[in-house]
Specification:
The chain is built from 11 helices and 16 strands. It has 430 residues and is α/β, with parallel strands linked by helices. It has a 6-stranded parallel beta sheet with strand order 2-1-3-4-5-8, with helices on both faces. It is globular.
C-alpha cells in the first residue's frame, strides 16, 4: 500500500531561524517513514540559499525537493512553515507551522491564516496562548467599517518545541576547543547571542542596548571586571554593520563614563559546531538575555547544554524550557511595544516584557561573585534540556500529534499479478 503524500513548503535551504526550524520538522517527518514526503523550497526574507549543499549532514533533503505540486494533484497532507498570514490550504489535510510571536498580540490576518488550516504548530506555549486569546473585529471590504462580527482562532494549535541537536550541542572539554578567543584578555565573560534589532535605547526586542548599559553600570569602576561578548549584528554581515554595532556600544559607553568593563564583538558566519565551541570556551562563563519577547529562544536552549549558568527575562517562549529552579530569571512587567521598535508584524498596540534593571544588576553581580554556586544549578538545567528537549523528543512529539489528528486516506493498493508456472503443460488444440 502506498504512503500518503505529504508536501511541505518551507525555507529548508536557507540560512535563517525559519530554515533551521524547517529542517528539524522535515527530518522528523521523514524519519517517521509513514509518508511520501515532497519538499517545495521557499525563500525567507533576504537570507541566502545553499545551506544543504554547504552542510553534508543536510544534503539528503535535496533528494526530496520538487518544483511544485503537479497539475490537478491534491496532496493528502499539505504543510507550510512560514508566518500565518501566508497560510493557504492546498491539500486534503492542511497544517500551518510558524515560529511564534514575541508580544501579546498580532494582526488579524495571522488569525485568519491559522483558521484556513486544519491544525497549526507553534514553538511555545506562549505563542499558543497568545493566538488563542485574541479576538478581532471583522471589517467590511466595501465600507471599511466593523460588521459586528468577531474573528478568533478556531483551529487546534499544538506546541512542537524546537529540539536541540545533541550530537552538536554538548559539553566539550577545553582540549577539544579550537576557537581562538586570545584577543579577549578577561577570563570571565558573559555571552549574548542574537541580532541587534530596530528600536531606541531600551526598546529593541532583544534589548541589547539596555543589556550593555546595565552591564556597564553593574561593573563600573571595579578593580577586576568581567567582560561581555556579543555574537550579534544588525542583520547584514559586513564591515558597515560591524561599525554600526561598535558605534552603538561607544555611544552607550560615553553616556555612562568612568572605568567601564570591556565589550567584545563577534560577527560573521558561525557553524553549529563553532557555536558549541563558543558556548563551551573556558572564557565564556554564562549567557545573558534581557529579551522583551521570544517565540522560543533557541540559543538559550542550546547554551544550556554547555552546563553553564543562564540569566534571562522571565517571560515568553523561553519559559517552556528554562526551569526557574536552575536558571536565574529576571523579573519585570509588561509594557507597550515602543513605536521605534514597531513594524508591520510587531504592533505598537500590544505589549512585551520589560526587565527590572535593579534585579538584573543584583543577579549579574551574584553570578560573577558566586559562580560555583550557580554552576551546580546549571548542570541540572543542562540535564533537564538533554532529557526533555532534544531533537529526538521533538520528533516523537511530531509523530504523536500527526497520528492523533491526520485522518486515514483511501490509498492505492499495489496489486501483484500471479506468476505463470512455466512447467505447466497446456493441452494441445486440435
Amino acid at each position: 500500500m502506498s504512503k500518503p503524500s505529504f508536501y511541505i513548503s518551507c525555507p529548508f535551504d536557507t540560512y535563517s531561524g525559519y530554515g533551521a526550524r524547517s529542517r528539524d520538522i522535515v527530518k522528523a517527518i521523514i524519519d517517521l517513514d509513514k509518508y511520501n514526503v515532497k519538499l517545495l523550497s521557499q525563500r525567507w526574507g533576504d537570507t541566502t540559499w545553499g545551506f544543504c549543499e554547504a552542510h553534508e549532514k543536510w544534503s539528503f533533503l535535496k533528494d526530496y525537493a520538487v518544483q511544485g505540486v503537479p497539475q490537478g494533484v491534491k496532496p493528502d497532507i499539505w504543510m507550510q512553515i512560514t508566518i500565518p498570514n501566508e497560510f493557504q490550504p492546498v491539500g486534503k489535510f492542511n497544517i500551518g507551522c510558524t515560529a511564534g510571536i514575541e508580544s501579546t498580540g498580532c494582526q488579524g490576518e495571522w488569525i485568519s491564516g491559522l483558521n484556513r488550516m486544519n491544525m497549526n504548530f507553534v514553538s511555545s506555549k506562549h505563542s499558543r496562548n497568545v493566538f488563542q486569546s485574541l479576538e478581532f473585529d471583522v471589517i467590511d471590504n466595501n465600507t471599511k467599517k466593523p460588521t459586528g462580527q468577531k474573528i478568533k482562532c478556531e483551529k487546534p494549535i499544538h506546541v512542537i518545541f524546537e529540539g536541540a541537536d545533541l550530537d552538536v550541542y554538548k559539553y566539550l572539554p577545553s582540549s577539544e576547543i579550537k576557537l581562538d578567543l586570545s584577543d579577549i584578555k578577561e577570563s570571565f565573560c558573559f555571552l549574548f547571542v542574537g541580532m541587534w534589532m530596530q528600536g531606541d535605547l531600551g526598546h529593541d526586542r532583544k534589548n541589547v542596548a539596555l543589556m550593555i548599559k546595565t552591564f556597564f553600570e553593574t561593573f563600573k569602576n571595579q578593580k577586576i571586571k568581567p567582560a561581555l561578548v556579543l555574537k550579534t549584528s544588525t542583520g547584514v554581515e559586513n564591515y558597515m554593520s560591524r561599525n554600526e554595532v561598535l558605534d552603538k556600544i561607544k555611544n552607550i559607553r560615553e553616556t555612562i563614563g568612568g572605568d567601564l568593563p570591556n565589550v567584545y564583538l563577534l560577527q560573521g558566519d558561525f557553524t553549529n559546531e563553532d557555536m558549541n565551541e563558543l558556548y563551551n570556551h573556558p572564557k565564556i562563563k554564562a549567557m545573558i538575555s534581557f529579551t522583551k519577547g521570544e517565540g522560543f529562544g533557541r540559543p538559550l536552549l542550546e547554551f544550556c547544554l554547555s552546563k553553564k549558568p543562564v540569566i534571562a527575562s522571565g517571560w515568553s517562549g523561553q519559559m517552556d524550557f528554562l526551569n526557574p529552579q536552575f536558571v536565574q530569571m529576571i523579573p519585570g512587567k509588561l509594557e507597550n511595544v515602543h513605536p521605534s521598535a514597531a513594524n508591520k508584524w510587531l504592533l505598537k498596540e500590544f505589549q512585551w516584557f520589560g526587565i527590572e534593571t535593579r534585579h538584573a544588576k543584583r543577579i549579574l553581580k551574584d553570578v560573577y561573585k558566586k559562580y560555583k554556586k550557580y554552576s551546580v544549578a546549571a548542570k541540572k538545567q543542562g540535564h533537564y534540556i538533554r532529557t526533555n528537549f532534544s531533537r529526538e523528543k521533538m520528533g516523537e512529539l511530531v509523530g504523536k500529534v500527526l497520528d492523533a489528528n491526520i485522518p486515514k486516506f483511501a490509498q492505492q493498493v499495489d496489486l501483484k499479478l500471479p506468476e505463470i508456472n512455466a512447467n505447466v503443460k497446456l493441452p494441445k488444440i486440435s
